[in-house]
Amino acid sequence: MKRPEPVQVIKGRREAALTGLVARVPYIQFLGVEFDRRGDELTAVLPFKDELIGNPALPALHGGVTAAFLEITAIIELGWAALWDEMETGRIAAEDITPAAMPRLPKTIDFTVDYLRSGLPRDAYARARINRSGRRYASVHVEAWQDNRTRLYAQATGHFLMPAPNG
Amino acid sequence: MDPETKTKLARQFIEAIPFSRVLGMQLDEISEGRAVCSMPYDTRFVGDPDTAVIHGGAVSALMDTCSGAAVMSHPDAPVVTATIDLRIDYMRAATPGQRINCEATCYHVTRSVAFVRCVAFDDDHDNPVASAVGAFTADRGKASRRSSEALS
């Protein structure tokens, strides 16, 4: 019987895949969004910085920052889900996980953000749930919070056009 | 508050927003319930590395700010507002290298809510990049109620 791969090998491959996916998008770097991975589960993290403020009087995060943070979380979740399948079924070999080999990202069709509370000047977190992912279209829901997981400060639903296979 | 003072306050507020400044946003026009804003193309705002097209999130920041400006300049809305919800439809990819322009209209204000429509386009003005609809808070609050009472 074949021995299971050492844990470092598996972790290394998954981290390389996630980094490759995220590092290619300049706007993710611009906002400073990072991803925390536990198995296949991703949590997007938006570390606070002063330039993300939209209302200096409160102060509160800019609505556009929150919208972008949620949209990034949804897009990376979709890209990651596709990549995960490729990787775990062995269709992509470890040595092929390079930035150039990353799948094309889905395109946003529409995105609706619900601003539930004003975004405080501190770190924010978000997780996306793919409610439906077909061959061509996907529907994704995203939830974002700051201090308290059950007190969401924003949520969003979006529809995405999936990249054509090998296209 | 007379419309001129209100527009001036709205302009000052919009131009002081840290994130809008970072994006290089500018307020091109503002009048009663209507605002025009624009933002330069910047490689840091790219969302699709394969095509160099700007990220939807950068366009949404412009549309959110422009919509807020339209609300603040509306004669029946307070100068303070917050986004309740914003839905953006992305019709096509913005052409890399071109400025993104945005026109927002605050078309209705109730005692507590302001409704806004907004369109974004690049150099091709007849072929929008994105459109948005949103609801914003328009809560006049105690302070302004008191001041209007003082006037009557």
From TrEMBL, chain A:
<feature type="domain" description="Thioesterase">
    <location>
        <begin position="61"/>
        <end position="150"/>
    </location>
</feature>
<dbReference type="InterPro" id="IPR006683">
    <property type="entry name" value="Thioestr_dom"/>
</dbReference>
<dbReference type="Pfam" id="PF03061">
    <property type="entry name" value="4HBT"/>
</dbReference>
<protein>
    <submittedName>
        <fullName>PaaI family thioesterase</fullName>
    </submittedName>
</protein>
From TrEMBL, chain B:
<protein>
    <submittedName>
        <fullName>PaaI family thioesterase</fullName>
    </submittedName>
</protein>
<dbReference type="InterPro" id="IPR006683">
    <property type="entry name" value="Thioestr_dom"/>
</dbReference>
<dbReference type="InterPro" id="IPR003736">
    <property type="entry name" value="PAAI_dom"/>
</dbReference>
<feature type="domain" description="Thioesterase">
    <location>
        <begin position="53"/>
        <end position="126"/>
    </location>
</feature>
<dbReference type="Pfam" id="PF03061">
    <property type="entry name" value="4HBT"/>
</dbReference>
